[in-house]
Amino acid sequence: AELRARLRAVRHTVLVLSGKGGVGKSTFSALLAHGLAADETKQVALLDIDICGPSIPKIMGLEGEQVHQSGSGWSPVYVEENLGVMSVGFLLSSPDDAVIWRGPKKNGLIKQFLRDVDWGEVDYLIVDTPPGTSDEHLSIVQYLSATHIDGAVIVTTPQEVSLQDVRKEINFCHKVKLPIIGVVENMSGFVCPKCKNESQIFPPTTGGAEKMCQNLSVSLLGKVPLDPQIGKSCDRGQSFLAEAPESPATLSYRNIIQRIQEYCEQHHLQEEKIM
User: Fold this and answer.
1) Is the dihedral of CA 92, 94, 96, 100 positive or negative?
2) Which helix (H) or strand (E) holds 236?
3) Of 3.90.1150.10, 3.40.50.300, 3.30.43.10, 3.30.70.100, which CATH number belongs to 1-274?
4) Quick one: the chain helix, strand, coil %, rounded to 5?
5) pLDDT, tens digit (0-9, with 9 covering 90-100), for 239-267
6) CB-CB contact of 110 with 118 (8 Å)
7) Span 148-207, pLDDT tens digits
8) Domain limits of the chain?
9) Is the pTM of this model over 0.90?
């Protein structure tokens, strides 16, 4: 009941999942939040539940920030007026501190984030999850089932070793009845800025995300090419979309973000019809 009361003001909830680490899931979560918040009429919240590897504070340029408590709960840390962030990284005394917790303590913190953070009225709540299909994922799906989840975006890279784990992630979504918005293929080819030739840094030996999506009847939201500037922007805590507006990767991100928005709006209309 407490969760339902707190999350009643959240219009859309999107989980960002990945089968394995290092595929750019947190980067995607951050850029999805930046992209949605580019519309100043929209209020966006980014919740980082990657408890053992919270990289969102660094990517969003919020390292060293602290969480403040008010009468209405924990206040998120704001990047912009319409973009708030919450992460376990804000609760650590140093970015180098290791979080050595068993499952129940992790689950307790996730519940606390959902119950105690005062997001206010929010159009989009983006949840950045750790890799895999374990405690944190089961907890977030279970807790959010008290309200509603629009669906999950699954991030992968083109090579088979990544797709193998993504198939498990898709299977997880089906088992817990979590709708899949679609798959994003990250690091999909690299266009040399000098000679303009394209190289496959991670060759899609089994057809990449496109073939996998066809086989599993899941939407492919888009392919994001490798761009060294993305890593540099993340290290500086800046939005890559704002720093490189003409990059092919930015254009790809914008198309993907638009597709996610369209899905959420459609999902909202369908829910209203059912009610």
Assistant:
1) negative
2) helix 228-236
3) 3.40.50.300
4) 40, 20, 35
5) 999 999 999 899 999 999 999 999 999 97
6) no
7) 899 999 999 999 999 999 999 999 999 999 999 999 999 998 877 777 677 888 888 999
8) 1-274
9) yes
